[in-house]
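Let us work through a complete example step by step.
Step 1: write down the sequence.
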Amino acid sequence: MSRTLIRGGLVITAAEEIHADVLIDSEQVVALAATGSTVAEGWTADTVIDAMGKYVIPGGVDAHTHMELPFGGTAASDTFETGSRAAAWGGTTTIVDFAVQSVGESLRSGLDTWHAKAEGNCAVDYAFHMIMSDVTESSLKEMDLLVEEGVTSFKLFMAYPGVFYSDDGKILRAMQRGAANGGLIMMHAENGIAIDVLVEQALAAGRTDPRYHGEVRRELLEAEATHRAIKLAEVAGSPLYVVHVSAASALAELAQSRDRGLNVFGETCPQYLFLSTDNLAEPDFEGAKYVCSTPLRPKEHQAELWKGLRTNDLQVVSTDHCPFCFSGQKELGRGDFSKIPNGLPGVENRMDLLHQAVVDGHISRRRWIEIACATPARMFGLYPRKGTIAPGADADIVIYDPNATQVISTETHHMNVDYSAYEGKQVTGKSETVLSRGTVIIEQDRYLGRAGHGQYQTRETCQYLI
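Step 2: predict the structure and record it as tokens.
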């Protein structure tokens, strides 16, 4: 059993900041003590890491990724191997990906397919949510079994008719089941039926460029769907987690519900905090790089989203990492924006972009750790194993240099995609050393990890309810 000692850093968790030494035995944190204290000075270890002048933070928990996701006749370009390795480079040590139930198949079949994709291939630990595309009596019963096995969250879609879409009756039934078995319902809240009408009308009028993707997926249709999802959850007595909130009006629906004491939660993503419809409007089809759903919004929405993160009306920042190469994949939509695969790369950039938000004064250091590590772990039943630095927690730890500068670029990133959504953006802060369950997997710009180090994580039910 090897022991590792991290000395002299500023340990930052959601709860506190303290100059402390961290003692790791095998895969777990076993003790913390103030740097220079008699207790800390008495510790010995096989490996000592000097963190003086650096932050010591929990590894990031990205609760929304799509590795190898089939979509629109192609598939996300990151495998579990490449995507989890890129996550490690960016200081994320746990991902929660989405297993997909296809129409006509069982939840079990979809889950088994995703286990086969991930097993033995991940550089960091991983877990699964379950996408329900076919709500039937048998799949509702399967929800109970999956919750017992540690797959404790289920995503439904108000968007993508004919693919993932569920009507209000199916959504209500799934919510009722979740209320009974403890499963958390996650919702893609956009009115897909109405959006399809607007898509058809835009294409008929010759409006085919990428920017029209953002125009047809109207803010009002995100707000309407968010409102409807909240009301259905209230009828069912079910908690609700709304994914990738992009619009100020949708956020307002969440805030009002939370003010009424409902267990309603919201996630946003870096793309909505740092990018906008200006990117979608870039000429020569460059805007296709920024096609995702929910879509990017005008810049004025960013201030409201940052405010929501400060007031806890938004609780989590995940990436919705779903990369498609510009060449050969995004280009499928030349002449028809509706055929552009929806998704952006970002699993490697999230922790650094959010640290830049600390530098810029949008959020505090502790709030950075709360929205990127602790709350996603609590929300999805991984805490306190993940998301914090405390005795008994897994030793998923990042030595973070808050003064390093880097330029985000496709030339240097490790995601398997041929562009960066943040190309040329300079950020302050960088993961210097990354430990996953006590094993150093990134050290001074060297990857020391391996496919198969990452272990599948069963999850408890949501630990974040009011």
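Step 3: interpret the result. The longest helix spans residues 219-236.
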